[in-house]
Amino acid sequence: MCGIIGINSNKSVSASIINSLKKLEYRGYDSAGIATLHAGSINEVKSEGRVDNLEKNSVVQNMVGTIGIGHVRWATHGLPNSINAHPHSSQNVSVVHNGIIENSTLLKKFLVSKGHKFKSQTDTEVIVHLITENLKTENIINSITKTLKSLHGSFALGIIFKDQPDLIIGARRGSPLAVGYGPNENYLGSDSYALKSMTNKITYLSDGEFCVIKKDHVEFFNEDGIKINKKVLELSSEEEKYDKGDYKHFMAKEIEEQPTTLKNGIKEYLDTSNNDINIFNFPWKINEISTITLIGCGTAYHSCLMAKYWFEELTTLNVNVDIASEFRYRKNRFKKDTLYVFVSQSGETADTYAALSLCKSKEMKTCSVVNVIESSIARDSEFVLPIHCGIEIGVASTKAFLGQILILYLLALKLGFLRKDLKRELFNKKLKDLKELPDLVQQTLSIDNKIQTISKTFNDAKGSMFLGRGFSYPIALEGALKLKELSYIHAEGYPAGEMKHGPLALIEEGMPVVVLAPRDDYYKKTISNMQEVIARGAKVLLITNKSKDEIISENIWETIEVETTGADLLPFLLTVPLQKLAYYSALKKGYDIDKPRNLAKSVTVE
Ligand code: AGP
Question: What are the structural domains of the chain?
Fold first, then answer.
């Protein structure tokens, strides 16, 4: 999704801006641009496609200027072309913007009536003209305050001015933004990863705030333009490595890293000497919580759904699961005895963040399960459970999914044990099984050859279905999501028992259907549902776990057997072949696996 970089320095900034934009590439975008200020004029270059295209532009290669802003754009208003790419500039002002201005049409009408001419189809351009208009009568601070107050919607902004050779303005409402501090230079960035290559000293802007970045100091203001003080945080100075190593794609690497993700999570949370789970500083008494509400988007939502099955199995808590974009606008009944759990890899997903803000405004108990611990969701929730899986670059979430469900499983186990819903003996047995899980996932990873052959049938089909019951149902949804986002094949995840209530009509001769039927309490029921689709011509790929008992069905097209463990841990193993199926299917089609079309890694607009 969109990303912002700004640098105010006493040396030329264009190369550093381009390098930082490259660090933002993993977010998913469709165009890029840069503007620098030199000798009282703003020079702007924009290009469609990758940052590489921008870098190759001869004007950029010779660009001078010690102050500048750069942007990668993920289109919301207007086509993904170079005209709509950011920055957008008037004669006086240049702006980069993440987010959506909801009242842009009205503002544009007003600005056109004042004689302003628009070049692009974007909502961002109204900000440029609004500042330009306000500057006619106000000083910089007042024109920014006035402009921000006129905007409805969400934004993170980077702004430079023709007449201000030592000033970048950053402003935030809804979309993340941070300031970084360097030697004789200061930075603006929408993502601490991008800033981390230049500094580990960071200040995060809160909603409604803006800042004035000069070469030697930074000032912060609240929404009324009144100066405020902000803390400088020191992040770990180790820059996380994220090269592909010997892998063709980040996704392939991230799938293979999953045993390490699990080992790290287990090491972090399991107290092996006392047979316990450490959830340090859990801020609530156990009897203060009788309901858990889990909230997320996409894959993180599937993690929440998975957790529902575990919480219901291991505790007597009431459990609700919600999609963040639905939760935030529903008439919810907020209850003091509910723990609201927000699940997000990036910790910046706009809908999940808005759902968290809503719960906070109602003074609810909030906890987040995140990968990026410096993120807005982590910073704003009362209690954080990090998943420790390292940076995830592939837009399709893989290791973060296993990381999230591990933490949620540990939380369910711990709460079940503390509430005395789970006896010590069973608790110990489950901890013992957990310790073996990373090795079992490792063994399950070696199924590539078979999956590669199978993926061809999926690529040749019009569509496919993924079926599961109980613990396997959220995994079926996740498998279908992975296939559709990577290989653009229509894939539907469904509870196997629901098929005859409608979707069975979709089944036709040769349609590939994945059936997840591990040997758990649902096994026989799922096998019956599988027979119903086979009888109607489906080509069934059965994914089950190894067992001494024979599979009780015939006419199955292909079977994959994952390793064996306790029923509640089988979802971890079932996930692996589905990730690989999506990967190989996209690989055969020659698609951009790490950056699928239309998608972004961090969804910072609603
Ligand atoms: C997963 O493969 C997706 N790309 C997507 O559904 C993602 O999980 C979702 O956007 C939520 O992101 P988050 O975990 O960063 O909040």
Answer: 3-234 (3.60.20.10), 250-444 (3.40.50.10490), 448-589 (3.40.50.10490)
